[in-house]
């Protein structure tokens, strides 16, 4: 056990104010006192007036939150009271502008407040704090903003700001299934569903709504976009109403994904043709039933004609007809249709003009102007699917008479599944800040989705999230910076990634300068590092796209109709997407941007292989060849991930033990798995190209002992597929009750780290014990999947390592590994690395 670092006086406060253990459940709402808490006291009155909130209203929640927050942040012992006496001085007033003007007249509230915005002011002469919302939700957002400022230790003595969101759409999409599992489940089961029903216990759902509200999110879609039509049963609608009840006090509207074919699948009609009158009236009455139960429902999210989902194409109806049937049904209730632009068909890889990236514009462009005013087309940031690097979707520049929102993925589906640290705001900002130069006018994506550029009423952002029952919400403490960052950007896309992460660290881990610096450095380096050790130069992530979307498996991109092709051969790789010789994708951008991407000469290196097919020996603008760039980037990326471990360890004693250990475990895992990535990708392309690494690293591992070269008993060599997922293409597996692999070590006497590279398969917990001259060095079980999607194979998903530190080794020592298989897991071993200090292999 490590000693707690919390000062005694603070620990006392924690006890008094009942702050939870640091299990991550409080997220960034820990309300810990900043170092200057005592200086803030005088500016924070201890009476709170809530203007006319009913118990379930956001203004009422705002008052409660404010009292709780202030008492915790300023360590006041229950000394802040909520009063109904509307005194004129020394009071915090929380309410809507209307109520405020009624009660106090027009004191300085001349600013116009619109949808969800708020006004925050400290009146120095009256010693009042005004937290005034355009509406109730705005007042609640104002309270969260005020508490954020206090918790950050900001100067609140001169406060006078109006804050308004970028756009009205600030949604999250959970992909929860009614069975209680989640698609992309890396943080525990659903907080909404269990056993095919809406959960009885919705405590966590309410807590989630509070977290969402604190970052300005106003709607949550609770079920998978691949929707189950039975959600629309009367008893499930009653269940949804219970979720809406726990959302409502936090100003979060419940929304749902719907199955386009529900009238037939669930309603028993013979068709789901969107223009069929029986279908129209079926949806009308279903929508009425929903709004009777949930009068403030947000609307529908629709994935149609995509990846096997039903849609209007089935009946030769247009996407606009498909969307408008719901828009018309929802309009009387002010409901919104979020219609995903993620529509594409399987394609023929031999057709050099075929390109999945072309699909969205091809499908949607003809219908611009035909969507109803309450339809918002939800467009992923890039044209394919949340890859590590993609250009901005050209659809943002094409739909000028349609409301649009940008979809991002907080769930790290292709980006390490919350087991790798990848801070995503810098990736999202690339698209938000991208200037499409439509009609040669400034056309940043953020100004398009805010509605400004094309003068649209609706717009904003939506994020795929995957919070679950895990106390950390996302399965990983550090992954929460992505949820926080999403909310901040959806509110204000101008926020910088650095500013967001700094605030998040202060709120989540405290104000220690070193803590802030280290976590900020790790976070800012994390996406570049992940890109370095996965897919480079715009080739996409190179993860296993046919199975788990987790570890490396570059060959799954080609040889199928999914269109995430790399077109790798022995000469080179990349998709030619130019107009002159390729698929024509670059021509979907407005002229200036199209011209930039048309030729390699003007395409930035980071997207070189997205837009062009290049030979391995092609020289990039950097001066490196394509293949050497791959080699160098992969070694650099894995080194950065290794550095994260020592960086994090430097915070020992500055962070509570529980979170310190949880994060450390993940960073150690990432460091090991980034080596799996590195080796897989460099070996794969070395195998194709035959071009050696000019630095001699690829295929050369002086510190490794291949398991297949050890003396084996009960173990037998196993050819791993994909080949690149094993060092020397080969591992060993136990074909008996127990296996032993032995080797004589011929390293100079010294202290080494001993890294055991193995595979952790789903469906069994093998045991490994390592001996040096018959003395046990240590042992471990293979059950550390940490929440990512597991694999039943020996591959780049299951490959991982366990390291024993500081082992004394003498030349001639005998290393013996005893593997005991279990279930489906045959105790596989790839190699052992005997690592001198500072060496990564
Ligand atoms: C806080 O104060 C209120 C009103 O003064 C009182 O009803 C309540 O019991 C107090 N709570 C605690 C925990 O002292
Ligand atoms: C709040 O509502 C009550 C009745 O519901 C009304 O008498 C009172 O004037 C209202 N207060 C404000 C400040 O609007
Ligand atoms: C839909 O949910 C029901 C339970 O409510 C379940 O029986 C059925 O298997 C689900 N359908 C699919 C496709 O998941
Ligand atoms: C789901 O809820 C319905 C209605 O409350 C109930 O009839 C059914 O038995 C429940 N199913 C399960 C699996 O709990
Ligand atoms: C409901 O869930 C909360 C949060 O997980 C838990 O603390 C509480 O004990 C649960 N209540 C019941 C009745 O199971
Ligand atoms: C859709 O149109 C195609 C060709 O125009 C036709 O072959 C097909 O029968 C139509 N399908 C339906 C369901 O109307
Ligand atoms: C795929 O495209 C190639 C080249 O254009 C063509 O020869 C082939 O017939 C196509 N295959 C199918 C199934 O359409
Ligand atoms: C790329 O390699 C191919 C095959 O060796 C060769 O035909 C082609 O000329 C090369 N292209 C360039 C630009 O070097
Ligand atoms: C690589 O594997 C082959 C068998 O597949 C084996 O003969 C060779 O010794 C191995 N190389 C090393 C360095 O262990
Ligand atoms: C598997 O183990 C048996 C002994 O249990 C041994 O006879 C056999 O050779 C092993 N198979 C391989 C491929 O080594
Ligand atoms: C791994 O398995 C062992 C043996 O069954 C068990 O004692 C241990 O708690 C497991 N660890 C985890 C993280 O599940
Ligand atoms: C949270 O998830 C992680 C990873 O799946 C797991 O190790 C941990 O035990 C979980 N904790 C809780 C409280 O569910």
TrEMBL record:
Occurrences of domain Glycosyl hydrolase family 67 catalytic (ranges): 152-473
Signal sequence extent: 1-21
Substrates-to-products reaction catalysed: an alpha-D-glucuronoside + H2O = D-glucuronate + an alcohol
GO cellular component, one term: extracellular region
Principal subcellular localization: secreted
Segments forming domain Glycosyl hydrolase family 67 C-terminal: 475-697
Any one Gene Ontology molecular-function term assigned to this protein's record: alpha-glucuronidase activity
Location(s), subcellular: Secreted
Protein's recorded name: Alpha-glucuronidase
Organism for this UniProt entry: Mortierella isabellina (Filamentous fungus)
Organism classification: Eukaryota, Fungi, Fungi incertae sedis, Mucoromycota, Mucoromycotina
């Amino acid at each position: 056990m490590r000693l707690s670092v919390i000062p005694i006086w603070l620990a006392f406060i924690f006890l008094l104010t009942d702050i939870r253990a640091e299990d991550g459940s409080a997220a960034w709402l820990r309300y810990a006192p900043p170092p200057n808490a005592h200086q803030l006291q005088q500016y924070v009155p201890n009476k709170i007036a809530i203007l006319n909130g009913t118990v379930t209203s956001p203004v009422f929640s705002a008052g409660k939150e404010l009292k709780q927050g202030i008492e915790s942040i300023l360590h006041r012992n229950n000394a802040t009271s909520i009063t109904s006496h509307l005194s004129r001085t020394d009071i915090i007033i929380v309410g809507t502008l209307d109520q405020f003007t009624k009660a106090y007249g027009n004191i300085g509230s001349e600013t116009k407040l619109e949808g969800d915005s708020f006004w925050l002011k400290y009146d120095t002469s009256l010693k009042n704090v005004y937290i005034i919302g355009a509406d109730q939700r705005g007042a609640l957002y104002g309270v969260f903003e005020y508490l954020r400022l206090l918790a950050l230790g900001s100067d609140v003595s001169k406060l006078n700001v109006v804050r308004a969101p970028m756009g009205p759409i600030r949604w999250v999409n959970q992909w929860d299934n009614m069975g209680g599992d989640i698609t992309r489940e890396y943080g525990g089961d659903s907080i909404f569903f269990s056993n095919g029903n809406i959960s009885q216990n919705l405590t966590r759902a309410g807590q989630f709504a509070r977290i969402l509200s604190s970052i300005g999110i106003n709607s949550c879609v609770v079920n998978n976009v691949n929707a189950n039509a039975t959600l629309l049963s009367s008893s499930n609608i009653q269940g949804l109403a219970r979720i809406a009840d726990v959302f409502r006090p936090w100003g979060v509207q419940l929304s749902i994904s719907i199955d386009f074919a529900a009238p037939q699948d669930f309603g028993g009609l013979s068709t789901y043709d969107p223009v069929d009158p029986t279908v129209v009236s079926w949806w009308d009455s279903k929508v009425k039933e929903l709004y009777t139960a949930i009068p403030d429902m947000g609307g529908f999210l629709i994935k149609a004609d995509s990846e096997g989902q039903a849609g209007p194409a089935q009946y030769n109806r247009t996407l606009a007809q498909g969307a408008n049937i719901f828009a018309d049904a929802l309009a009387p209730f002010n409901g919104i249709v979020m219609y995903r632009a993620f529509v594409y068909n399987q394609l023929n890889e031999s057709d050099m003009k075929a390109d999945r990236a072309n699909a969205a514009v091809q499908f949607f462009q003809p219908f611009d102007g035909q969507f109803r005013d309450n339809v918002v087309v939800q467009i992923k940031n890039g044209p394919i699917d949340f890859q590590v690097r993609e250009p901005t979707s050209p659809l943002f520049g094409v739909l000028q008479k349609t409301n649009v929102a940008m979809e991002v993925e907080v769930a790290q589906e292709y980006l390490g599944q919350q087991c790798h640290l990848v801070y995503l705001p810098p990736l999202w900002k690339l698209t938000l800040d991208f200037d499409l130069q439509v009609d040669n006018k400034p056309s940043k994506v953020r100004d398009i989705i805010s509605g400004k550029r094309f003068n649209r009423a609706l717009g904003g952002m939506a994020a795929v999230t995957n919070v679950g029952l895990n106390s950390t919400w996302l399965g990983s403490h550090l992954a929460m910076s992505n949820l926080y960052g999403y909310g901040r950007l959806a509110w204000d896309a101008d926020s910088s990634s650095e500013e967001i992460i700094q605030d998040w660290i202060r709120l989540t881990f405290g104000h220690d300068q070193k803590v802030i610096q280290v976590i900020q450095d790790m976070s800012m380096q994390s996406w570049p590092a992940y890109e370095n050790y996965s897919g480079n130069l715009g080739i996409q992530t190179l993860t296993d796209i046919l199975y788990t979307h987790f570890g490396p498996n570059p060959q799954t991109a080609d040889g199928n109709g999914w269109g995430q092709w790399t077109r790798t051969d022995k000469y080179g790789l990349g998709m030619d997407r130019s107009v002159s010789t390729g698929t024509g994708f670059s021509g979907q951008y407005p002229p200036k941007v199209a011209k930039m991407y048309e030729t390699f000469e003007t395409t930035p290196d980071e997207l070189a292989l997205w837009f062009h097919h290049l030979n391995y020996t092609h020289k990039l603008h950097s001066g490196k060849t394509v293949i050497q760039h791959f080699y160098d980037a992969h070694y650099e990326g894995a080194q950065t991930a290794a550095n994260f471990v020592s960086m994090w360890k430097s915070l020992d004693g500055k962070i509570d033990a529980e979170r310190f250990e949880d994060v450390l475990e993940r960073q150690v895992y990432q460091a090991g798995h980034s080596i799996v990535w590195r080796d897989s990708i460099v070996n794969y392309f070395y195998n194709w190209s035959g071009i050696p690494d000019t630095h001699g690293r690829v295929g050369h591992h002086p510190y490794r002992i291949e398991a297949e070269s050890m003396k084996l008993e009960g173990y037998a060599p196993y050819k791993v597929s994909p080949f690149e997922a094993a060092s020397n293409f080969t591992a060993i597996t136990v074909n008996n009750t127990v296996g032993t692999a032995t080797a004589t070590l011929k390293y100079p006497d010294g202290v080494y780290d001993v890294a055991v590279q193995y595979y952790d398969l789903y469906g069994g917990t093998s045991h490994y014990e390592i001996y040096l001259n018959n003395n046990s060095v240590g042992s471990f079980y293979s059950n550390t999947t940490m929440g990512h999607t597991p694999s039943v194979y020996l591959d780049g998903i299951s490959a991982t390592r366990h390291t024993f530190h500081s082992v004394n080794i003498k030349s001639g020592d005998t290393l013996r590994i005893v593997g005991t298989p279990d279930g489906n897991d045959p105790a596989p071993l790839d190699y052992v690395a005997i690592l001198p200090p500072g060496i990564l292999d």
